[in-house]
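Researcher: Next sequence.
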Amino acid sequence: MMTGMNTETCDLAELAVLREVFASRPEAAAPAGWEAVRSFEAEHGIVLPEPYRTFVAEICDGLRAGPPYYGLLPLAQTPADWGSHRPERLLAKPFPLTAAWLWEAEGDEEELSQQEFEARTDPVFDDGSLLLGTDGCGMYWHLIVTGPQRGHVWQIAGEGAMPFGSQSPDALMPGTPGFTGWVTHWAEGRSWFADA
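Model: Next structure:
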């Protein structure tokens, strides 16, 4: 399990990095403001993790051109390809994972009925996370807002779910964990995956 992040208090150094990355992006949307952030939190029964919370309120609420590939979503939106068949998103319910789960590698899709498979994987897509955006082809980036992984960014796709940002030599997506680490990794033009 990844730990060590302060998700309750906004680190001014992290906020300065985020301001610098987004200051040069003319396609960045205006910040949502504190009233909109607090309203969103009250509606969903959560408090957004820092520094994302302050970032959305004071710096930027969406970006048309990355991160991820199809842009950073505004606070209350889902990607156009998210689909209307998805269950209701339950942000206050804890995100169920603490380690990568590549269900495609386990063969779970073939062994279970579609209903059984969705009962196991739907919480990974819909509980305790905020959608940051998509890289297309069903690859979504989530900011975990509830549970032990609060503040971490995960990529969740049809093949499985994996956290971004690990210092482990065998990490699938090495880097600095958290929203600022994810944004910085993108701004530096680095590949998300260790073997790419």
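Model: Helices lie at 12-23, 34-44, 52-58, 103-106, 108-111, 114-126, 179-187. The chain has one domain: 12-187.
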